[in-house]
Write a structure and sequence with these properties.
Blueprint: H1 16-29, H2 44-48, E1 52-53, H3 60-63, E2 67-76, H4 78-87, E3 98-109, E4 115-126, E5 132-133, E6 135-139, H5 156-166, E7 170-174, H6 191-208, E8 215-216, E9 219-225, H7 227-240, E10 248-255, H8 261-272, H9 304-313, H10 321-337
Parallel strand pairs: 5-8, 6-7, 6-9, 9-10
Antiparallel strand pairs: 1-2, 2-3, 3-4, 4-7
Length: about 350
């Protein structure tokens, strides 16, 4: 998600649509009495930041949802939660508790069904008596760098999730495949694999919560912004279909979708050329290999010559974002023209 004008490099602010969406979700979630947070569960190991490795019982589907590790990311007081949210432009009227955050690492699958691992953020309220928490899943928007994922960075997606937890919920924010600590490239716009990673994180959080003095309720609220809006809709559908009998869909609130693909490509390509260590070309031309076979199908015969012209133009593309955007625009136009062929 591009940084707003005037924002220092490396810092991102929450888009206004996400601010409004988060406010609506929080308002809806608090129509029912918010449950109190679990009893404090600080331990010496958690305070040291050491990963707590969990040995979970194998599950079907090559161990999908098995919790591999649980890493404390720190605690925030109520005042710190409010301060962080206000910096991101979020309303804080629902904040009630301090929050403890953790990174979960768990087993899941690739788009073609092979076993892999993924990570995500689990945020829990602190300082209450109840051990039962209603979960809310927040699926994030487009990211250019794996280090911006919710479990990795103190960015806008973490701020939103922490605010949900401060309202008395168990907040989950999957990093998706290829982001956070997950190996490989991110299969951008592949809702199926983002949903499987999100559902498996929900299973892993179900195992992690008792280790932290909490229990997840069965009814799950789901929300997401931009790319996460697409993922939230698809995840809600799977929960409604009964993908896991331990969970059922409660509220579903997708906010927007990944609609401005040409604009996103330009920004992401520009980010990818800023230099190693700062950003990642996850969605640039080299990264398109991650989606080969996921989104693609054979070209219509009469369109292939037109596409060859576009492919031959690739070596002439320079580091200028405008040239890259023009190239991708031409590809899209040609694809639309040939959509009815063959």
């Amino acid at each position: 998600m591009p940084a707003e004008a005037g924002t220092p490099c490396g810092q991102r602010r929450v888009p206004r649509a996400l601010v409004a969406g988060a406010a609506l979700v929080l308002a809806a979630l608090t129509t029912a009495p918010a449950l109190a947070a679990p009893a404090a569960f600080t331990t010496q190991r958690a305070e040291s930041g050491e990963s707590v490795h969990a040995v979970a019982a194998p599950r079907s589907g090559q161990g999908r949802g098995t919790l591999l590790s649980l890493t404390p990311l720190g605690r925030q007081s109520l005042a710190e939660v409010i301060g962080q949210a206000q910096k991101q432009g979020l309303k804080t009227g629902t904040a009630r508790h301090g929050v403890a955050a953790y990174r979960l690492t768990y087993r899941t699958i690739t788009p073609d069904g092979r076993p892999t691992t993924a990570s995500g953020l689990l945020a829990l309220p602190t300082g209450g008596d109840s051990r039962h928490l209603p979960p809310v899943v927040h699926t994030h928007g487009t990211l250019a760098y794996r280090g911006y994922a919710p479990s990795m960075a103190d960015g806008p997606d973490r701020a939103v999730s922490v605010l949900y937890a401060s309202a008395g919920r168990a907040a989950l924010a999957p990093d998706y495949l290829g982001l956070g600590t997950s190996p490989g490239r991110h299969p951008y716009m592949d809702a199926r694999s983002s949903v499987s990673a999100s559902l498996d994180m929900l299973r892993a959080a179900h195992s992690a919560a008792p280790k932290l003095g909490a229990t997840l309720d069965r009814t799950v609220s789901v929300t997401g912004f931009s790319q996460g809006g697409q993922v939230a809709m698809a995840l809600g559908r799977e929960l409604h279909r009964g993908a896991d009998p331990r969970f059922r869909l409660g509220m579903l609130a997708p906010v927007g979708g990944p609609y401005d693909l040409i604009g996103a490509v330009g920004w992401l390509l520009g980010q990818s050329w800023q230099g190693p260590g700062e950003t990642s070309g996850l969605y640039a031309a080299p990264g398109s290999a991650s989606t080969r076979g996921t989104h693609t199908r054979p070209l219509p015969c009469r369109s292939r010559s037109a596409y060859r012209a576009v492919v031959r133009a690739v070596p002439r593309a320079t580091s200028r974002t405008a040239g890259a955007v023009e190239l991708f625009t031409r590809a899209r136009t040609l694809g639309s023209a040939g959509a009815t062929d063959g």
